[in-house]
Amino acid sequence: MVEHLERFLLELGAGFAFVGRQVHLDVAEEDFYIDLLFYHLKLRSFVVVDLKIGPFKPEYAGKINFYCNVVDDQYRHDTDNPTIGLILCQDKKRVLAEYALRGMNKPIGISEYELTRALPEEFKSALPTIEQIEAELSSDLYD
Question: Is the pTM value of this prediction over 0.70?
C-alpha cells in the first residue's frame, strides 16, 4: 500500500519529489519513523504522510504534529514553508478530527472536511484531493 501511494503521488506531476519511506528521526535519543516524506516543489514545503489502518484516533493528530515540527527543525531550510501533515485513515470521524486538530497551527489534513478547512488555498490547488488519494488506496486494497 505504501509503495502504491508513493507512486500515485509522484505520478500526479503536481510537484511532489520523493524524499523517503520510513524516514528515521532521532529525537532525544529516541527513534521515530515517518511512513512517507515528500518535498513539494511548487509549495516549497515538506509533506509528511502518516498511513493508518482503521478509524482516525485523536492521538494521530499529536503524532503528525510532532513529525511536522521535527521535520521543520531538522530538514526545512529558512526559505521553505512550514511542513504539511497528511494523515490517511481507512475511516474518518469528523467530530474526533475537529477536536484533535483544534488549536494546532500546522496545516494537517485528515479528511476532505479537515483538508478544506485547515489548508490554505494555495496548498489545496497543488495537493491531490482526499477523493483521489482514497480512490488510489481503495484500488490498492482490492487489486
Answer: no
